[in-house]
Amino acid sequence: MSTLERVSTAEQAPVEATRVNSWNGWDPLRHVIVGRATGTVVQAPEPAVRRDFPEDGFPLGTWGPMPEEMTAEANEQLDSFARLLSSRGIRVDRPTPLDFTQRVSTPDWEQESMFGCMPPRDVLLTVGNEILEATMSYRSRWFEYLAYRPVLQSLFESDPDMRWEAAPKPRLTDESYVPGFWDTYNTLGLGEQLDKVAANDLVLTEKEPLFDAADVARFGKDLFVQLSLVTNRQGYEWLRRHFPEHRVHAITFTNTHPLHIDATWVPLRPGLVLHNGERLATPELVKYFEVNDWEVVEAVQPASWKHQMRLSFCTPWLSVNLLNLDPNTLCVEAEEVRLADQLVGLGFDVVPVPFRAVAPFGGGLHCATVDIERDGVLEDYFPRRAGRF
């Protein structure tokens, strides 16, 4: 080797090793995926999805691309968030948008549109060194995993210990859905709707395993799976068998439209969980946390209802859709000042992030991200049993 070659080699910056590793939602974050709003569409009708925005040009039965100005504003906030994370030394990957306006099909069905790739949390679940592609339960989202395949392929090639898994792709025939569910459900009283939620008697049948990754809350050795409009008992059972070294729990809350757990039951750090008090937890779940010395804190009300804006199907409780940078630091939507004050009172450093414009594209700060690497190892935070858990 020449002197020039030796100098050149010595001056090269060290290449940071890629490692897939994340057991919970609070260990120090090192590597993350941040979604994109590009190409998102108001979905075409399908058995599990009902979009009805007549004031904004999309009455029931119509579909098409989100308005360009909304997409641009959402992408501006997503890009700014990605830069903020990078400035803190966190590596950021992004999905590759598809043509989400295209018609898609399998041998069993045709669907007039796809959806988008803003909320990667819905599609991908990281448990330890494994990244799992969820089944998804909307036909419009069946192919959404393709937007993340370039990132996953790169991780697979870079990390020899990465486990890349995909749950069984569902057929999503008409047998997977309750016929006319929304027409009937919307005529029921509150008590009747909550009874159906508790029994997981919703739009999905038990024909096949179905789940979104965002219905899984990770607490080390314990995984809590919310039964919801997109996750059925078969999906929970598949996850329970797939992670035999974990305790996998099926849970419900008093929420008439349950859709993903991360705006309801939010881990903040070991021993502390933030709870959306409008969606009561079962006594069994609360007891399981309390006997293991966890404090359950009710979140303050959302600061505003602004994200019930144009074309948004999200709840104001995106306020609690937080991203932990480490056990002491939380990213919070910038307008949620009361929540920020509550979290500061609990001992956290809060990083305000403007993110309101992203809500119509599928969620908040947690929805818009997927952990690839956090420091830490698998730990048991619930050594004491309680009730059915």
Structure explained in plain terms:
- The protein is an alpha/beta fold.
- The protein has one domain (18-374): 5-stranded Propeller (L-arginine/glycine Amidinotransferase, Chain A).
- It has eight helices and 19 strands.
- The chain has helices at residues 3-11, 68-87, 149-158, 181-185, 190-198, 233-242, 283-290, 337-345; strands spanning 29-34, 41-42, 64-65, 91-93, 104-105, 110-111, 124-127, 130-133, 163-166, 216-219, 222-226, 247-251, 265-269, 272-275, 295-298, 323-326, 329-333, 349-353, 369-374.
- The strands form seven sheets. The chain has a three-stranded mixed beta sheet, with helices on one face. A three-stranded mixed beta sheet has the order 7-8-9, with no helix packed on it.
- Helix 3 links the parallel strand 8 (130-133) and strand 9.
- The longest helix has 20 residues, at 68-87.
- The protein starts with a helix and ends in a 15-residue tail after the last strand.
- Residues 1-15 have low confidence and may be disordered.
- The active site is at residues 212, 260, 367.
- Belongs to the amidinotransferase family.
